[in-house]
Amino acid sequence: MQHVVIVIHLMLVLALIGVVLLQRSEGGGLGIGGSGGGGFMSSRGTANMLTRATAVLAGLFFVTSLVLSILAGFNRKPTSIIQGGQSGPSVPGAPGAPPLNSGGGGLLNQLQGQPAAPPAAPSGPQVPQSK
User: Fold this and answer.
1) What CA–CA distance (Å, rounded) separates 122 from 118?
2) Could you tell me which of 63, 49, 45 has the C-alpha nearest to residue 9?
């Protein structure tokens, strides 16, 4: 449904651009510099027809814009600002969770799928050594 409305909307946009470009300048629309006479397709009759066509196309453009915004709102789900988008703490190793800190082993071992060696546990408090 939404795709059909988008195609109609785009056709209306192209028609509206074409009708606006077909109109004469402000001076020409008032009959200045044109031929005289009050026939149907005179300069004044053409200006009236193009003005009406522009108004109709602009109205249809607004209607399709409103329909598209309404259709886009149907799939929107309400969210809470308070929760911040997460339902709870993430489980390590779950899809989408940050990777576990393996403690070393390098990128090559991680890419090859080899488990990294666990880091050596310190035997006591560490004191900085001066050189």
Assistant:
1) 12
2) 63
